[in-house]
Design goal:
This protein is mainly alpha-helical. It has two domains: 76 residues; 83 residues, no CATH class. It has seven helices and two strands. The relative contact order is 0.05.
Length: 197
């Protein structure tokens, strides 16, 4: 090296500085490759042995070790894998949360007014703005108009269970109405109470 520097006409002190600089740059690149490979493997695997193995391989083989690691490293990082599993879980939850008919249990859509399988009334239409409303809503949330004949939450369930199918004539509606016990003839007369009895 000194002969090369003297042939170029440079003093030996400058040659020593350049040599030290090149050694420091090569060492920094080597150390950077080792640290990067170790951190990258740590982001892709929880296995401590694999993380140390990658660091040692890149430290011993330098550039060929880094190329081997890049060819064999896991495809996804742990964060990417976690986000993918969250997306899959959200999709599954969305599938599971599809509404079902209270009458027959079949899947229905949010925009359906009645179940096509058992004809149970699912939603009703606002008398003012024509938006679909839940059976138990007493006021329209879109136009704030009170709804006639709105049921409470308890009555809505019983109405759905005993709802008359949509396309059935009024004459046959008694088949679908809830049965009430017949009233006796004696109960039709009001009872009077006399003091002293």
């Amino acid at each position: 090296m000194t002969e090369l520097l003297s042939s170029l006409g440079l003093p030996q002190d400058i040659g020593l500085v350049i040599t030290i600089y090149l050694i420091v740059v090569v060492a920094a690149i080597w150390l950077g490759m080792v640290v990067w490979a170790y951190r990258d493997m740590r982001a892709r695997s929880r296995d401590r042995l694999a993380q140390l193995g990658v660091g040692v391989m890149v430290a011993l083989l330098t550039l060929p070790g880094l190329i081997i690691y890049l060819l064999m490293r896991p495809r996804e990082t742990l964060t990417e894998s976690y986000e993918r599993s969250l997306e899959e879980e959200a999709l599954l939850q969305e599938i599971e949360e599809k509404p079902t008919c209270p009458g027959c249990g079949q899947r229905v859509r949010e925009t359906w007014q009645a179940c096509p399988h058992c004809n149970t009334r699912l939603k009703r239409v606002c008398t003012h703005c024509r938006q679909l409303l839940e059976m138990s809503w007493q006021i329209c949330p879109y136009c704030t108009v009170p709804q006639p004949g709105a049921n409470t939450a308890d009555d809505a369930g019983s109405e759905r269970r005993h709802a008359r199918p949509i396309n059935v004539p009024e004459s046959t509606s008694s088949i679908y109405a809830p049965r009430t016990p017949p009233r006796s003839s004696s109960s039709s007369q009001p009872t009077e109470f006399v003091e002293g009895d």
